[in-house]
Model the fold of this input.
Amino acid sequence: MKNHSCILIIYTGGTIGMVRNAETGTLMPFDFGDLYTHFPVLQNFDCQLEFHALDPLLDSSNMTPPFWSMLAQVIYDRYQQYDGFVVLHGSDTMAYTASGISFMLKHLAKPVIFTGSQLPIGVVRSDGRENFINAIEIALARENEKPVVPEVAICFDNKLFRGNRTTKFNAENFGAFLSVNFPPLAEIGVHIRYRRDLILPPATETLELNTRLDPHIGILKIFPGITPETMTAILGTTGLKAVILETFGAGNAPTFPWFLGLLKEAVDRGILILNVTQCKGGMVEMGRYETSAELLKIGIIGGADITTESAVAKLMHLLGQDLPREEVARLLTESLRGEMTV
Done:
């Protein structure tokens, strides 16, 4: 038995892990293996911090589903050794990776806290130091000998969000992320105020890992003036199995006969089409207006308030299980990891 908590810090790459070389002025990787020298305040935590770097380190723009699988495998393989995990990740695709990890780790009972920064940790005004320290404290938090946040979450700019509810919306401000349809799990000030009524309870079942992901999906964003040629090119993609249809407002789309005809042809070929709103807030309500009622008639699936990032990860996860099409369609309307309101 360990006498104190142990947290594994996993570095995947990204801005947070860079410092400026004093001689050349260029950015170079930060040595997380010497944490206590750079962050002496961490010695105040009653815990052991260990570090693991993925190989290769990647800018988050280069993250792919196989990389998500590798990260999930690292967490799974070390799950019994640690009380929680802090994942250092580039902010640009953090919401995609956090969503993917949430689906691949079933029956999670320990914190997996993603964080990063808008400025490198080695520059004067970096937001990385505060994000990093906050993430560690949240990963350590326990109540009645149980972790306070036993789920995949994103800690950024003094807020903690459910990972698969989050979208990066700002490329410049320190407050880079939004979770419009689901409140923060915690807000960080003088105290960390947790919303225990929102946080998922720790699973009692044994953790299960499923890293099979099928990337044969597409995103079709509707816009005024979209042409049949554009629709045909996307819906006719070789090997396509599912499409995220980004619609207007509460799930609305054109009712032109050619438009609905192309979608119906795709559905009839067995392609799953998930209706997700382009809006950052609100949800798809199929049938609320005539323009979405037509989509419902031809077999389009309503995505409620799921984000595009989470929809991408969920579709890849479900398609990777080789389930019958009808079962995948059913599971798309259910909340598997708290990713949508049902």
In short: The chain has a mean pLDDT of 92. The CA atoms of residues 227 and 259 lie 9 Å apart. The longest strand covers residues 5-11.
